Amino acid sequence: MSGYVGAIDQGTTSTRFLIFDRKGAIIASAQKEHEQIYPKPGWVEHNAVEIWRNTVSTISEALQSARLAASGLVAVGVTNQRETTLLWDKRTGEPLANAIVWQDTRTSPYVAELSKDGGQDRLRGKTGLPLATYFSGLKLRWLLENVPGAREKSEAGDALSGTIDSWLLWNMTGGPNGGLHITDVTNASRTQMMNLKTLNWDDDLLALFEVPRACLPEIRPSSGIYAEASGVLSGVPIGGILGDQHAALFGQACLKPGEAKNTYGTGCFMLMNTGEQMFPSSAGLLTTLGYQLEGKAPVYALEGSIAITGALVQWLRDNLGFIQHSHEIEALARSAGDNGGVYFVPAFSGLYAPHWKEDARGVICGLTRFVTKAHIARAALEATAFQTREVLDAMVKDSGVAITELRVDGGMVVNETLMQFQADILNVPVVRPQVIETTALGAAYAAGLAAGYWQSLDGIVENWSASKRWHPAMDRAQSDRLYHFWQKAVARSLDWAE
User: Fold this and answer.
1) How far is CA 48 from CA 18, 97, 388, in A?
2) Which residues of 347-367 are buried (b: 16+ CB within 10 A; e: fewer)?
3) Distance between CA 482 and CA 49 in Å, rounded?
4) Among 113, 126, 288, 323, which residue has the least CB neighbours within 10 Å?
5) DSSP code of 256?
6) Is the distance from CB of 461 to CB of 439 less than 8 angstroms?
């Protein structure tokens, strides 16, 4: 089969469209950032109409760059920022409000209310998730309760809800003129309303969250031909949907139990493939869907989610003016040599895995007159590595599997100072693949498999190859000492918000 496969990668800060060949190499790409909206402290929103416009624009730009017509694509996949939630009018296609972003903490009162009866882990048995502001279900409840007319429209089926994948798919297949309202198992698993065993919306959970079934999308496998696109991709089969971290797991060819990857983006997300077996976590991780191919059993994963990593670099750039461009952080941090005794806990949205503390807030510890902005920049990078170690330790504890190497991807993996420090703190090799755009690549693989462009998972494994390996070079006692002070800093971030 000739042609190429396209992938929409709709992330927290930007939207991209990438075109891949059979070897998984990028033929063309285009990217556009969208506005981050902060109406109140702890609130984070996106304009879903802007995201859709940017999606159309990047598709057109990438096709033009590759000198391709839409007919040159055999299939297209979609990957998206997870948990970000919106409601829109079925007849007009207009959102009823801005989308509530996964980092948003406005649902903290709901978490406290529901945790009174059975604790924060009361829903783990069905959903694999603790009660937290992170997940979609409580965001949808907030919209239903606070947007005028939203509940009435949703109960009547006149308003549709979903994560960003559902919004894009609906618009790609006609919108108000018969648009397809679907999601996949990976995105549905992050709503806290889907039963992990049945892969369907759970009536008890819907009742608990006070969400009408009429507004919810149909849950489908992650790979399968759903429909043909209209508009800018007219006639192209849509064949894959994966939440961004699940797409990265797939794109990194972590297809066997025990294989793990870590994606360094706005946040940081480590997933370990656990095969067809669900591992309940006792160490603060999430049990989630890895992916599901059409006609096959679902593959599960353990996940450690970290809210703020790359976003901390953006904060130093945009809020404090330490740097003008994000890539400058490495040179600034390297100029310090070490952290000067400074530890930065970026608990801007509380702490996610393995702590799950909504009341934590960001702290910088160990400040003296000796400290410069270079030391703070260094501490900001090191925070990503320390948080990753917390998650990896929990993953080993839960699974009983010792990780022998960590596959990494995402925008921050070009930072070699960070990658070396990550290997030093983990005391295992860190491996960067040839194609670091593994989130988009995973969506392309899901779509291409459904269309027969790739015949089997073997083709994905064959495409994967390492670009660079970082081996631990720090004395273990020094690594443990640094981690000890990190843990002291974390303890000081807790119980701040009241």
Assistant:
1) 20, 9, 31
2) bbbbbbbbbbbbebbbbbbbe
3) 45
4) 113
5) S
6) no
**Dihedral angle, C-alpha 148, 152, 157, 159, nearest 10 °:** 0
The total number of residues shown for the chain amounts to 498
Cis status, amide bond into 354, omega within 30 of 0: yes
Angstrom distance (rounded) from CA 65 to CA 350? 41
207 HSE (CA, 13 A, CB side): 3
Give CA–CA dist 453/15, Å, rounded: 24
Tokens of 61: 């730009």
DSSP-assigned letters across all residues of 111-158:
HHHHHTTT-TTTTHHHHS--S-TTSHHHHHHHHHHHSTTHHHHHHTT-
- Return the structure tokens found at 49: 């109409």
Instruction: For strands 26-33 and 14-20, give the pairing.
Output: antiparallel
- DSSP reduced 3-state for 228: strand
How many beta carbons lie within 10 A of that of residue 126, not counting itself? Answer: 17
CA 8/CA 441 separation, integer angstroms: 10
Distance separating alpha carbons of residues 419 and 429, to the nearest angstrom? 10
pLDDT tens, residue order, the chain (498 aa): 679 999 999 999 899 999 999 999 999 999 999 999 999 988 999 999 999 999 999 999 999 999 999 999 999 999 999 999 999 999 999 999 999 999 899 999 999 999 998 888 899 999 999 899 989 999 999 999 999 999 999 999 999 999 999 999 999 999 999 999 999 999 999 999 999 999 999 999 999 999 999 999 999 999 999 999 999 999 999 999 999 999 999 999 999 888 889 989 888 889 989 899 888 888 888 999 999 999 999 999 999 888 888 889 999 999 999 999 988 999 999 999 899 999 999 999 888 888 888 889 999 999 999 999 999 999 999 999 999 999 999 888 888 888 888 999 888 899 999 999 999 999 999 999 988 888 999 999 999 999 999 988 988 899 888 899 999 999 999 999 999 999 999 999 998 987
Tokens representing residue 52 in the block: 């859709």
- Are 395 and 304 a contacting pair, CB within 8 Å? yes
- On whether the CB atoms of residues 316 and 377 are closer than 8 A, the answer is yes
114: tokens are: 């529901």
Structure letter (DSSP) for residue 217: P
pTM over 0.90: no
Hey, how many other C-beta atoms are within 10 angstroms of the C-beta on 277? Answer: 8
For residues 433 and 426, give the distance between their C-alpha atoms in angstroms, rounded to a whole number.
19
Angle between helix 48-66 and 164-172 (nearest 10): 60
CB 333, CB 378: distance < 8 Å: yes
